[in-house]
Amino acid sequence: MFRNFSSRLQSSKSVVQSLRTGNGAMGVSSPLVLHQAKISSSLTPIQQQLAVSSFVRSFHSLSMHRSEKVEKTPQEDDIIMDDEEMGQEKKAESITIEEPKVKKGEAREHLQFQAETKQLLDIVATALYTDKDVFIRELISNASDALEKCRQAQLQSEVKVDQGDLPLQIKITLDEKRKIFCIEDTGIGMTKEELIENIGTIAKSGSKAFIQKLKDSGSSDTANIIGQFGVGFYSSFMVSENVKIYTKSFDPDSPGYCWESHGSGSYNIYEAEGVTRGTKIIMNLKDRDKEFSMRDTVERIIKKYSNFVQYPIYLNNSKVSTLDAIWLRKPQDITPDEHKRFYQYINRSGGEPLYTIQFTADVPLNIHSLFYIPSENSDMFGSESSAPDINVYSKKVLIKAKHREVLPEWLRFLKGAVDSEDLPLNISRESLQNSPLVRRINAILTRKVLQFFKEQLKEDREKYVKFYNNFHGFLKEGILRDYLYKDEIADLLIFQSTNSEKYISLKEYVEQMKSDQKEIYFVVAPSKQLAVGSPYYEAISNKGFDVLLLQDARDEAALTTIMSYDDKEIKSIESADIEIDSDGTALNEGQVEDLVRFFKSTVDNCQGLETTRKLSGTPAIIKNPDTSITRHMKRIASKGQPLDVTPQTIQVDPRNPLIISLHKMIGENPDKAEVVANQIFDHALISAGLIDDARYLLPKLREVLQLIVNEEKK
To answer: What is the CATH number of the domain that holds 111?
Structure first.
């Protein structure tokens, strides 16, 4: 935009920014001319630097009184100095902004906006945008559109572009002292008719018309045109008392014009001399919005929203360092170092990603996505935001950071970017509309991510295990919360098992099942040692079946939600129907009835007794005890208090020597039999995980000790 700051500044600053029309920098309101406040020459270089640095203090002070919240980036560092250290009071930074000469008088035209425009202006200026700082994004987007149109025109040999040697760039100049914001581009500019059509008619978007023209001509190069709705320019009136536009069309025969309005329903158009090709917008800021004339504030906003615009941006004559939108490039053209830099930018921290996922599609939707999986899980305790850390862009312009709709919440551990020219934007471009198209994009991206993980599971098990150990909780959350993807996520689960020293998937488990095994078995236990020591494992172990080892209730919840895999029902070993065949002495039906009556009459919380052939050494177990999920929920409900034991049915092995001896003891020594029966029941409760507080057992253990001592005395 400013090509030669002395001469060109005056004539060139044409900033055609049609309401998102893409005809120039017209996206937002901007104050009038900017002056450069010079820091006193009496200050030493260090004092001058301190004076400039203290602008940050001014910004923080002002932002505390703003009604809108301004988000800080991690790069902002405050340097606090007192007046004595500075030597003298800091002066506001200002750069003189020159304006082309306007032909007033008979050349002036006073025009009214269209009928509804005044009302719409009020809506745009006060209610359409949730954050005022988006006006800078809108203006830069419009300027980028105008530059892209000019570039397209220059590629056509039959089109003559005025001042073809002007560099394609965006220039923002600030006058903090006079509260002025100025943005200009060297883009395609506007004629008088286009000014009236694009600026005088709200929601008339030149960019939209331009894209349609390209499509009608068969060209597919529309991705660099950002504007869609034609209201971006009017966001400038959120912060401005007065807005001027200087513009000159790329047509060599077109004169320059000045457009001026207070946003009150009418505007003036004048011919202007010395206007260079492009558009220049000068905004006189309102007192309450003077922060937008401060360099630090504006630079932060540029980096937040427009960090990937393809054309260079200059702020007060200094180039703003921006990043390359690497997600738009081919994967083979991106270096590991570029991935590392972008990952650190998007993740706001150091380190390198464990995985990189890049996906591009043109049909049925235009999507460019780049996702990273961190090496470590920073959300081990679930304290981070529930929204995926994915920035959503439309043609490299940030639409929304951490958007909730483009990926499901359970994939919130992903970092990265999604860019699509097909994204439906609401009229303020700040949020994605809740539409079937957005849900379609969500589904496409989710399945691509799941497919990537499935491939990694096959290709590099060691690396996948590292990923899984960090992020398995999110995958299981996906099974519980997103039934649509439960089968695809099931393919990604891996487990330790009783028969294997390595992690295995459900697919691998099924492939190695024995011919007589019909179900998939799991056990919830804190360690393999405790799992294989469980009495519920005895019958399965006797068959040689493998059992998946689950660590907690969340694992069990995921598997019970899946219910089956490859037509094999998934069951806890506690509910497995496997019996152990053996010959030998056993209680008959009448003797078992004696045990039933005795247990129900002497053992608290015993509501019944049955026989079982699932056991090989353990005398008894609890029938169908609460699942680990149920127990977990009960513990939460009890608020840390020990759970009361509820009535249970005990299953005894009629072949077990202890059970046979107990039956005999009932007739010979009922008191001793009662102590033994209670111990058998308590042991069964412990095996089922139904006793939280072992102190409950102490009185009964003392009874056992007393029995032993009494026997020794005899």
So the answer is: 3.30.565.10
